[in-house]
Amino acid sequence: xxxxxxxxxxxxxxxxxxxxxxxxxxxxxxxxxxxxxxxxxxxxxxxxxxxxxxxxxxxxxxxxxxxxxxxxxxxxxxxxxxxxxxxxxxxxxxxxxxxxxxxxxxxxxxxxxxxxxxxxxxxxxxxxxxxxxxxxxxxxxxxxxxxxxxxxxxxxxxxxxxxxxxxxxxxxxxxxxxxxxxxxxxxxxxxxxxxxxxxxxxxxxxxxxxxxxxxxxxxxxxxxxxxxxxxxxxxxxxxxxxxxxxxxxxxxxxxxxxxxxxxxxxxxxxxxxxxxxxxxxxxxx
Amino acid sequence: xxxxxxxxxxxxxxxxxxxxxxxxxxxxxxxxxxxxxxxxxxxxxxxxxxxxxxxxxxxxxxxxxxxxxxxxxxxxxxxxxxxxxxxxxxxxxxxxxxxxxxxxxxxxxxxxxxxxxxxxxxxxxxxxxxxxxxxxxxxxxxxxxxxxxxxxxxxxxxxxxxxxxxxxxxxxxxxxxxxxxxxxxxxxxxxxxxxxxxxxxxxxxxxxxxxxxxxxxxxxxxxxxxxxxxxxxxxxxxxxxxxxxxxxxxxxxxxxxxxxxxxxxxxxxxxxxxxxxxxxxxxxxxxxxxxxxxxxxxxxxxxxxxxxxxxxxxxxxxxxxxxxxxxxxxxxxxxxxxxxxxxxxxxxxxxxxxxxxxxxxxxxxxxxxxxxxxxxxxxxxx
Lengths: 285, 382
Fold this sequence. Notes:
heterodimer, A: mainly alpha, MetI-like fold, 2 domains, two-stranded antiparallel ribbon, two-stranded antiparallel sheet, globular, B: alpha+beta, Rossmann fold, 7-stranded antiparallel beta sheet, 6-stranded mixed beta sheet, 9 helices, 21 strands, elongated, cell membrane (chain B), Transp-assoc_OB_typ2 (chain B)
């Protein structure tokens, strides 16, 4: 890219605009929908001109949903809280278990290590529906159905393989000699892991944490089957907007905006951190 | 138990299962005295780095024992061995400055701040890296990283300093300068060091003793002079020395008070006949002569600087003549093979010219053709 002609620049700009439009339009449209009533949303032809209203957000936050058929109680805020709690706890536990495991898989050669790592990855291959029925039965027998603990446990199926495989790659990219240099300077295995391996793999761990948080947040089917209303995350809770008297598009849109806000904010924040971490860690060999 | 700083006893290294995996090091025995500088010299894959890493504790010893200042250490983790190491890949901690990298171990050992500062200043001045102490490893050149890594190892008070190709990335002038300084630094402090290198000039300049390795086997362990003058086998003879030793397969016979060394030339269908070097029997000491005659097939070796042009001698045709500015390298076809001569003056010779070559009996190295082991060097038995 030494010189670019004006035509090339215009074409490139056009292409970028198209791509942005394609990806951003649904989000922008939903954002606009969340400030409209069902009537303005459903009018034909659609228009971007409307009188904005905060009714949808108010209904979600107070938990009182006005429909044509009367007043409906929803606990969207509780669902949001559940989502936050379930995802954050799952990721925290996943990191606690997955990062040392990833280090072991990356650094120590032990019998069957590849098989174990692959088995963990294979959890991601099977469709969740496949394991759902036996899982439900077991969970009911064990008393884990409809508990936070049970859900967090099941969420490890989503979170753990992801963390393990992403972080393992980052650990493998750290030259082993850096750790050796630290160990030979009088430090044991454990402190080498904490003081050298962990900081150097920091960006990778952050990326894995972020990604698995999003995956956990977006999970629907496990929570649908294994949790009742008071333990459900937003993904399942949003079903409440499909009421007897029709779909409440305005509230659905507001619910979506509220529920993507945390992951969106997290992604924006972590992106800055990731870029910083990756450009700083450059290890020349 | 001897009081050697380091002792390797029958050490084997296999990658993969014992006896069936890839053998990187085979049955090595080595002793390093306190205050000595040792070079492990060999080509790539000869096992020298594996040996070093076993001493450091990064590779498990497959079989055998390692003693470090009297303690048996082959089962101890690196942290308990009290060795310092400069890595071939530098391996500086990327998150801290060069200064902190160098001072790392001293700070961890809770040395007083003033002592740390003093030592960092000393070692960085010696290695010419004072100006980059406050930079981060990723922002300095490979040569600078290498010197920082070397400084990080040399600053420590370890029983043993392991230096893996410590000067591979440096420019020739700096390398020559630093060789002298590093040797002085190590000797002045009474440190014991093992240097891994494939550069024989470096090994010769720095080491008190050189361990020549090939194929995982220790070929010879002796002083640089000894290795040059009395190579233990054909490998050491041809590996150490620049340009390499000239070697010719030969057979030795005695007749009428003369000793005939019949150079067989290239046996692979080259029509040119071999060449008969004739010496008086009295040119060789009795035991040497007997040993030579006792073997049917031998290999004769002679260093390029010991091949002289003379008024009379065996004929050779000049193939190439190169003046290097301080010495001439003359390659000539000789006894069906080629021979290289080194002369200190500019030789006026053109291609194809016939010269007479003299090889003095005292400069002959004789090796057993079968085993490659040295039989005699000049007038002495090997």
